[in-house]
From TrEMBL:
Coiled coil: none
Keywords: Hydrolase, Serine esterase, Signal
Organism: Dyadobacter koreensis
Taxonomic lineage from the root: Bacteria, Pseudomonadati, Bacteroidota, Cytophagia, Cytophagales
InterPro entries: AB_hydrolase_fold, GCE-like_dom
Protein name (Swiss-Prot/TrEMBL): Alpha/beta hydrolase family protein
PANTHER family found in the cross-reference section: ALPHA/BETA-HYDROLASES SUPERFAMILY PROTEIN, ALPHA_BETA-HYDROLASES SUPERFAMILY PROTEIN
Amino acid sequence: FSFLLTCHLLAAQNYDEAKVPAYTLPDLLLSINNQRINTAKQWEDIRRPEIISLFEEHVYGTMPKKFDEISFKIKAENPNAMNRKAHLKEVEISVKNHQQSVIINLILFTPNQTRKPAPVFLLINNRSEKNTSVTRDTISGFWPAEQVIKAGYAIAAFYYGDAAPDNKNSFQNGVLRLYPEQLGSDNGMKAVGAWAWAASRVMDYFEKDSAIDASKVTIVGHSRGGKASLWAAAQDQRFAMCVTNCSGNTGAALSRRRYGETIERINTTFPHWFNENYKNYNSNEKALPIDQHMLIAAVAPRAVYVTNASEDLWADPKGTFMAEKEAEKIYKLYNLKSSLPDAPPPMNTPSLKPPLSYHIRKGIHDLTAYDWEQFVKTADLYFKR
Ligand code: GTR
C-alpha cells in the first residue's frame, strides 16, 4: 500500500517546457525587511549573510564553524610521481570535537615543473575511489590528474564517503558524529552539508601547505558532489572559484521550474541529503524564501563555472543557465562584467570567460576530460596564468 501511495504522490517528472509553471523568483536585491540592495557593501553586509542563513535554515542545514582540534598527517609521499612530473602527498586530515573524530583522506598531486606555490583543483569525489588512484593504474576523465598537472595546476581529491556515507541509514557515521546536536534538529545538516564541511577542512590544510597557493583554490563537484561544491563555495569565501558540474536540482538549477528532478523527488529518493525543513517544500517550491540563483550569487564576486550535458535533462540545463544568468546582477554590483550570452550557448561551445562561465557538453550526465579542459582554460584566464 505504501509503495502504491508513494508512486501516486510522486507525479511524473516534467520534460515539457510548455508545462513549466508560472513563477516569480525571490528578488536577489531585496532584503527580508524590504531594503533595496544597491551596492556591493550592502550586498555583503546585509543580503549575502541573510541568503546564506536562509539556505542553512531551509535547505542544507547549519554549517558548524567550530571544532576542538584539527591535525594534518602526511601518510605517504612520493616526490617523483607521474614520471617525475608531480609530487604526491596522501594527507590524513583529522578533526576532533566532543571526544569524537573524523578523518578525511586527501590525495594531492602538485606539479614539479614550477617552484612557486601552485593553484589547485579540489574534487569532491562522489564516484569510485579508483578515479583518484595514487598509483595511477586507473586513469579516468572524472579526475584527469595528468592533464591538470601538465597545465601547471595541483590537483586534489577526497572521497565524499569519508565525510558522510551516501546512505539514508548511515550518513551520520562521519562528520555528524562531531555534531550530534545537528541530528535532532529540523535545520541540522545532513550529507550534502557534511561533504561541503569536509571541503572547508581541506581548505584549512591548503592554507598550511607551502606548495599550494591557497588564494587560488577551485572546488569541483559533479552532480550530488556539484551540489556540495556550490554550497561549500557559497558559504566559505576562501574558495576562489567553484565548478558545479551537472548539479541539477538543489544544485545550480532553479527549483521553481519543476523541470526534470523536483524537490519532492529528491527529498524522497535522498532523504539524507538536505535538512528536515526542506521537506516542507515538496511540491511547494513557491513557499521557499530562496531559489538556486541565490546560491550562485552568494559566490560573487568569485568565479563560478556551471555545466550541463545535452542528454542530462534530469538536471534541467535551461533552468541551470537561467539561474547563473540571474546571478549576474550581483557581479554587476562589483562592476564585474559577465560574458554569458542571453540564451544557453550551443553544445560544446563554452562561454569560458570568468567570473561566470557555462557550457553544455554533448553527451550524458558525467564529468569528463573535455569538461576539465574547459575548467583549466577558465582558471588560466581567472588567475591570469
Ligand atoms: C541522481 C539525483 C541527482 C544527482 C545524481 C548524481 O540520482 O537525482 O540529483 O545528484 O543522482 O549524483 O549523479
